[in-house]
Amino acid sequence: MLTFTIRRLVLAVPTLLFISLILFLLLELAPGDPMAQVPLTVPPDVKQKMREALGLGEPMPIRYWKWIVQFFWIEPQVLVDWVFGTHFSDGDLRVISWQTRSPVMDLVVQRIPQTLWVVGTAYVVGILIAMPIGIYSAYKQYSIFDQAGTFVSMVGFSVPPFFSGVLVIVIFAVQLGWFPSIYDTTHVVDSWDSFVVQLKQMIMPVMVLALQITAQISRYMRASMLDNLNQDYVRTARAKGLTEYTVVMVHVLRNSMIPVVTVIALAVPAVFGGAIITEQVFKVNGIGQMLIVAIQANDLPTVQTLTFIFAVLIVLFNLIADVLYGLLDPRIRYD
Q1: CA dihedral sign, ordered 235, 239, 244, 245
Q2: What's 112-180 look like in SS3?
Q3: Distances in Å between the alpha carbon of 299 and those of 27, 192, 293?
Q4: Which among 133, 331, 147, 141 is positioned nearest to 230, based on CA atoms?
Q5: Phi-psi region of 105 (alpha: psi -120 to 50; beta: other; left: phi over 0)
Q6: Could you tell me if residue 46 is left (phi over 0), alpha (psi between -120 and 50 degrees) or otherwise beta?
Q7: What are the domain boundaries of the chain?
Q8: What is the pLDDT of residues 65-78, one digit of tens each?
Q9: Which CATH superfamily is domain 107-328 in?
Q10: What is the reported pTM?
């Protein structure tokens, strides 16, 4: 397993380099001008100097190489300096946002806690709800509970976040007045009352994301449980006199978790992508909202960095899923 993990990590480097090249070329070919928002009163020669200051006067291969060096070499040095107090990156040019004129990774570090508060909580809540629903739906196949779970899952799959988000705002914020309609990212949790306020403003965005997560994972859990409930080892366990709880919750659940855990790991990057829309609806000042603003402002360094971070998450969690699959199932060996 260690050899397989090291081999996958080595292969991830050219994969990520190829992905970064494709992202860079796509954004270079996309329409848009970073100088479009500059007032018309600015003379053309001044605009040209501004372009050169942003690095747009250099050939595309040179700009791509500089961005790769900044992302893979300079930014890790900045992280090391921040953790250990060293000075390896002093004087080095980092990936700078055209819009804010500040390092993009510093902006990501500022925004990521807000995204993790919402996305992380929604993912945990979705899993905790989906697992019991999937298990009981499979055990009571075609029951009223199973049919209700299937209906809720279809709703979760079918309703997009921009619709369900607006719907819960209208119901719970406008009509009932229970929760705030806008997420206050400046709120600081330093007491029990402030924690209650934070909890209230998290409920609606977490509800929207958790609905989709629950719909997906509960269906996988149900299908995996149904595959194992009819296996020979289940009948053998029952014939030995084991209790029904032990048969289902120990033997069947353990084998059913093998594909479900991989699905959970692979779905993490997709949840971050889905949070982009949810953050826009609830005005959560996270990395999703940051990406939308950067796209609207033609801030290519920020867009390149954020999309590449999503690509890194996909490659990383694919590796985690493969490793977990091998750890959960001793019959699988990556030789």
Answers
A1: negative
A2: HHHHHHHHHHHHHHHHHHHHHHHHHHHHCCCCHHHHHHHHHHHHHHHCCHHHHHHHHHHHHHHHCCCCC
A3: 10, 40, 8
A4: 141
A5: alpha
A6: alpha
A7: 2-84, 107-328
A8: 888 888 888 888 88
A9: MetI-like (1.10.3720.10)
A10: 0.75
Distance, CA of 311 to CA of 335 (rounded, Å): 27
Q: Do residues 265 and 324 lie in contact, with contact meaning Cβ atoms separated by under 8 Å?
A: yes
- State what percent of residues in the chain have pLDDT above 70: 87
Tokens of 125: 């809540």
Q: With H, G, I as helix, E, B as strand and everything else as coil, classify residue 96.
A: strand
Q: Which letter does DSSP use for residue 191 in this model?
A: S
In degrees and rounded to multiples of 5, residue 47 shows phi and psi of -60, -40
- Summarised one tens digit per residue, pLDDT across range 13-43 is 888 888 888 888 887 776 665 665 665 666 6
d(CA 278, CA 141): 33
Token readout for 332 is: 């699988």
Q: Is 326 exposed, middle or buried (0-12, 13-18, 19+ CB in 10 A)?
A: middle
Residue type present at position 65: W
Q: With contact defined as beta carbons under 8 Å apart, do 115 and 288 qualify?
A: yes
Cα 198 from Cα 185, distance rounded (Å): 9
- Which ranges of the chain does DSSP label H, i.e. alpha helix? 2-29, 44-53, 60-69, 75-84, 104-139, 144-158, 161-168, 192-229, 232-239, 244-246, 253-282, 287-296, 300-328
Convert the pLDDT of each residue in 171-217 to its tens digit: 888 888 888 877 777 777 777 877 888 888 888 888 888 888 888 88
